[in-house]
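To whoever is on call:

I kicked off a structure prediction for a single chain this morning and the downstream step that reads the tokens threw a length-mismatch warning. I double-checked the sequence; it's 306 residues and nothing unusual in it as far as I can see. Pasting both halves so you can look.
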Amino acid sequence: MEVRFRTFSAYLRSLFGERVYRVTVDAGFTCPNRDGAKGTEGCIYCYSGSEYDSSKRTLSVREQIALGIERIGRRYRAKKFLVYFQAFTNTYAPVDRLKSVYDEIRNFPEVVGLIVGTRPDTISKEVLELINSYTDDYLVWIEYGLESPHFKSLEWMNRKHGFSDFLNAYLITRKYEKIKICSHVILGIPGETKEEMMETAAILAALKVDGVKIHPLHVIEGTPLAELYKNSPFPLLSEEEYVDLVVDFIERLHPDTVVQRITGEAPSHLLIAPSYCDRKQKNRLIQKIRSRFEEKDTFQGKAFRF
């Protein structure tokens, strides 16, 4: 089946000539929306990091990288890796601490890239100078959690930042041409219309972001969202609705944007709803989205407006 959008795996293969795998690490950072700087409850969907596994924090960053390389290398015969600082806010620390953490990638010749996940309101020139210093030796991406450009949605999610923070971070980062920028987007936020979700795609297309990760809103045990959903249930996107929205969203993106993710998932024991976000359903859902592109005879950028 022809893939009708620009995937991250194909992008990496074009750069390195082979499959490249991500090793996710938890460097023990926190977040201004959890430590009291902006709030203490975190975002409405916030779990303990992105891996649903606090055990990583018992290992050093170097140990996590080594273990990830060993496990993934053994399973997939992988030879090249990206180190992804994923959990919480990975620019939210003094620059000297950030450098000591990021520098751990230099101990592994198999590592060819660095990915830093963060909030758009925790970036500075000093941090970007540091991140840019790795671009001579590595592929470097920074991932900003936009989630939505619409204020009502950001407020509902308790994000404690606005679209202006994302735009400011984007414009500052753009001054560093070798740093690639990825934006996270959530579809299906209560109160957002399809037109508003498509407006989000149009904004990212106009900015010509280098990459985008698309996630459906899903409910995980142990989050403020779970309590809200149990006490006052609200509608979540059905599988069919989500599949159609993803296709329509990608149609509106710039043709050069790398679509790094098209779903979000969680382990069965933590997922409350919707069921298609079960980690076991991930590959099936991805295939369904790809099939929908074929059925509609459409492709990334078809509805992009120059």
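Update from on-call: the warning came from a stale cache, not from the record. Cleared it. Sanity check on the structure: The radius of gyration is 19 Å.
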